Input
Amino acid sequence: MNTDIEIKDLMIHFYTKEGMVKAVDGVDLLLESGKIIGIVGETGSGKSVLGLSILNILADNAKKSGSILYRGKDLLSLDNENIREIRGREISLIPQNPSTAFNPILKIGTQINELYYYHEKETRRSCKIRSLDHLKKFFFNSEERIYNSYNFQLSGGMSQRALTAMGSALNPQWIIADEPTKGLDAVIRKQVYQVFKDLKEEQGVSMLLITHDLMLASRLCDEIIVMYAGKILEKGTSDKVFNNPMHPYTQGLIDAQPSKKLVPLEGIAPSLTNLPTGCRFHPRCKYAKEVCRFEEPQIYTVKGSKVRCYLYDKDSGLKEGI
Ligand code: SF4
Output
């Protein structure tokens, strides 16, 4: 059965005292299963809200419209009971922060056992066997020790891997991982990379990886989506986006990397309550022209990538000097 996720005209806005925060503002996107798809962009680009909206985990002040289709269902309009059937079993979330994601007063093993007990009606004995067996896949020196630990007893890297183990315990079709390498050192990031690679290659899990870590995204992802101020600006294969970025924002993000030119991206991202007219990137763009200030560019397909910028059009590809 097709397990793609199809997002159509998605808007997620939040009512706040400062005004309406347009976190996701008109996103159309096909997430094809069998791939690891990275979403990159600065803080406040809307990437985490987009990920959370797939599982309908949104704050009460959210105003949502559009649709997120998965196996013939619109995830955005499912009630709590029906979305709970999908969360964890079919689409699982690995949230940003292990210290808030784990229950601090339950051991890691107990928390994984509960998944098998409630979702798969296993006996308590069989839950323990499955949990230990599953933990073995995550490069722990002793899975028994992790099983019997509380989260606060684990290092950052162990905690992140334990969270990934919990997120993948029910063998979901999709995992949405939100900043899985945040705050981790290079050695642990490498381990996390290996864990995700194995999940895809050995368990066939499709993944949406939300990250600031462009190095991880370039090594791990099949496709990259670049978000800015609630919009998608570029989408393409990892190879194309990292080696031949088309959008000026993508170029700036990549040039700012330590492994590239280390040139910081000029300017700051706009307030989501007061977005610029026209192209949202125009106040920071060195190629901006008059049209960019007043009319929002559409997405063009150019050489197999998608890009939202007036420098391109679908017939001629590159329009002018970039
Ligand atoms: Fe720059 Fe204009 Fe392209 Fe926006 S549409 S990125 S302002 S050239």
Remarks:
- The chain has a mean pLDDT of 92.
- The two ends are 42 Å apart (CA to CA).
- Residues 186-203 form the longest helix (18 residues).
- The chain is about 35% helix and 25% strand.
